[in-house]
Amino acid sequence: MKNECIQCGLPFHLYDTGYLFIRSKKDHPKFSRFNEGWLTKNYHSVEELERMLKEACGLFEEKEVEAGISEKNVIPKMNISLHSLYSRVRERATVEMINHGSLVSYLQPIINLKNDRQLYGYESLLRTESPEQVPPAKLFGTAHEAGLLSLLDKRAREAAIKAKKEKVPAGIKSFINFLPSTIYNPEYCLQHTFRLVEKYQINPDDLVFEVVESEKIEDIQHLKNVLNTYKRQGMKVALDDVGTGFSTLEVLEMLNPDYVKIDRQYIHYCDEVAENQEFLTRVIELANKLDITVLAEGIERREEMEYCQKIGIDLAQGFYIGKPSLHTSYAAAGVR
């Protein structure tokens, strides 16, 4: 965790020529011994460095071997795993986009099912300015492999807050995704976000920070600390994909989110599938006990929206209501 914290939110610099360092106590004929802990080898182009790293990944089988690059023959100040470094060099065009490229927020409308399907807010979804060239899956997949999720997550929050200031009126909520696994010390790691909110003079009550995590979160106490840090700043918090690990009463009571978003697998044909209907009923009962607002995501059919409205779900979003767009263009009449 120490190295990850040191590099949290920092861009990666790729030198055209320099030295590759690998931490290993075992000598290897292809590398020179720098000191007791490090091997080194100089390279003369980025293409040569990529070939060296590919070969090194096969030569060094120790788990999580550390590596780094330096412009001069000195041990780098920051080092990462050998495989992450190889990913950064191999996918350098996408890494440059993560480092310094133009990132924007696409906005997907969220409507209030209990208030005549009027606009309630927008979810901010990170995109490049040319998503057909670098799609979101490529952006986040590379960031995961290359150990740059902290930086990308930070830049995503920045793009979303900027979009809120420029495009979303006051009083309309902005749902902003974040990865709790990239936030090691919430009081420190989130200061950049809070400064942006203050800089753009955004009402904290208009912001909903939404937990997004592909893998199951094991450290519930850490997640609670992150959510409480947002709440102390006057912001709201949401749990995404309820139904994949957050649906028990005990967990919801501990985390006490303001919103829960029901995973789309339970919304799909919920007007017809009995198992989905039973799950939705349980979530609504839990949420009512804890005074949590329920949002159904992934609505793609009129029948799904009408069923969710009939059983008392508060909010809804999905392609039937509106697709993500650079602009705020929702009109309630479009889904009546």
CATH H-level homologous superfamily name of the largest domain: EAL domain
CATH architecture annotation name of the largest domain: Alpha-Beta Barrel
Helix content: 25-40%
CATH class of the largest domain: Alpha Beta
Instruction: Summarize model confidence as the mean pLDDT.
Output: 90
Number of strands: 13
How big a fraction of the residues is strand? 15-25%
What can be said about the biggest beta sheet?
A: 8 strands, mixed, barrel
Structural class: alpha/beta
Strand order of the largest sheet: 6-7-8-9-10-11-12-13
What fold name stands as the CATH topology of the largest domain? TIM Barrel
Characterise this structure.
This protein has 336 residues and is of the alpha/beta class. It folds into two domains: 88 residues, no CATH class; 239 residues, EAL domain (TIM Barrel). Helices cover 38% and strands 21% of the residues. It has twelve helices and 13 strands. Strands 6-7-8-9-10-11-12-13 form an eight-stranded mixed barrel, surrounded by four helices. Strands 2-3-1-4-5 form a five-stranded antiparallel β-sheet. Helix 9 links the parallel strand 9 and strand 10. Helix 2 packs antiparallel against helix 3 and helix 5 runs antiparallel to helix 6. The longest helix has 19 residues. It starts with a helix and ends in a 20-residue tail after the last strand. The relative contact order is 0.10.
